[in-house]
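re: that complex we talked abt at group meeting.

here r the seqs, copy pasted straight from the sheet so there may be weird spacing, ignore it
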Amino acid sequence: MTNDGTGQSTADPCHSSLPRRLRHYASAVWAENIKEWKLELTYPLDFLRSLIDPVVYLLPYVFYGIALVGGRFSPNLEKLVGTTDIVSFITIGYVFIGFMNMALWAMGFSLRKEQMYGTLEAVFAAPVPRWIFTMGMSMHSILHQFLMILVQLLFILAVFSLKVNPLGLLPALAMIGLMLIALYGIGMIMASTTLLFKQGWLISEALGSLLMVVTPIAYPLAVLPLFMQKVALAVPTTYGILASRHFLMGEQMGFSVLTAFVRVAVLCIVWVVFGLVVFALIDRYTRRSGTLSHY
Amino acid sequence: MKEELTPALEVQSVVKNFRRGRGLKRKITRAVDGATLTLPRGELFGLLGPNGAGKTTLVRCIATLLIPDAGTIKVLGHDAFKDSLYCRQRIGLLTSGERTLYWKLSARDNLNFFAALYGLTGKARDRRIDYLIELLGLKEVERDRLERYSSGMKQKVSLARAILHDPELILLDEPSLGLDPQFARFIRQFIKDELNRKQGKTILLTTHYMDEADELCRRIAFINKGRIVNVKTPEQYKRDIPHTEVLEIRLQGQPDAAPLQALPGVERVASDFKDGVTTLKVVAPRAEAVLSEAIEHLRKGGRILGIDIKQPTLEDVFLYVTGTSLGADTAEHKPVAE
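got the structure back, here u go
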């Protein structure tokens, strides 16, 4: 029971009913998200830069594609994936770099950031499971990412008049939702490895480079060597990109929509379970070794 | 056992080792060595020891931030590791060091965030935060970013965060460390009068300030090199060496104090070197009796800056019992064979 000094009190959330505990965890996730927004907005120029950068980085991809193809529409692209518009193709693919960065960097470094603030022990002493903090951080990253995508899409719409099927938006978002769950699993692994290794960014860097190569961001999956295509099929962003392009601009995926959803659902289970297990093991290791507050 | 009769904290034979380095250079240090403590509800209990004695490690084990290598810890009768969420809800932790809050956020934003982690939401959260802000005198600055606060003000916010969820057991790790005397006095009074006397909280306070332990705590455990040496009231400790005096000699440089230990009548000698000056404390039944011989020995070692004969304080009792001065740094104290 909590005394607020007025004689009134609130019930203790631990050892209470499941719905009450879930509400407690949900409010902790929301609070983590709000706290991150407040911290981020203390540097408004940096925040503005984070919105403009993705547009600036997208343009070389677009111009490079147009220069190689000799125009916006490519008959060769149509032969490979059934659509000709290279600008829409690259733009939709490119927004997924942000989702990869979210898992590898924003989520991956969530606990590292708390270590650097000096607050990791204070938050870990709270009565919520520790994966709640990575979930709150991923919520902030996802919202941030959607804001960046919105700016990118508005820019491309204004300059190149992006051609997409608006009816495909809902199924594309459903696929992205599943992809984000699977990416959360990868983010959990990255978050825990940064607790274990002082130079955890090296792992993020290496994995980020690998994912950039195998994920069909600016080129169709079919141009990759066969073994790379197989690696790409274990990466959730591959399905997010292929399905989004399929729903929004009619790209042929090489497999059915049902197959894509089933495969992503399986990847969700595999990555989330793997992520939780790795996180629990490393959390236990750091509490045994006493390295939790080291950075 | 009825819940009211269950002790607030039971620590039984806790051992914590730290491993550093790899391969042949690997070293294991025992930070806590079989610590056993029982705190009944409502007690303000002190853990007194020099830097590196194992106080913070023991507090971190109780707060479930570290897993001990052996032993058990129970909070209000619940195992701290099997039922860690229950225990964390009932523990308020104030760790030492300033950086335990978000400096870019205001006091209220910090407290709002931590309130959500402890399951406080809506009006109950707002009432509780209003109450603590008022109680700790933070009303004027509650919307300012913490980076603009003094160390003392930050410590007040840390204290508010530690007691935000109205915990039964409060762990205070060096709460007045590095604070100016005015804030240190405020924090001490708040702990004793508000938290312990008025609210009846059980408090485990670690400190290496003898005055703080003497002023606040009903019972004090001496901890040295990871071991809890004794648990008594301050008065009992002082009675332990009733016929003893302390000869305090301050000298320039670092003289060899070992020969003093061999002087007839000398019970303990401790040496503390700081800023080029050594303070020697010689515990003896009659300090005057060993004075001339002690000076004779020390004259060659360096210029004597001052000599004083004192009645034993709690700090001297610590020295008497453990052979270590509270000002000493005893980190890396006990290597353990792997």
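couple things i noticed - The two ends of chain B are 40 Å apart (CA to CA). Chain B has a mean pLDDT of 87.
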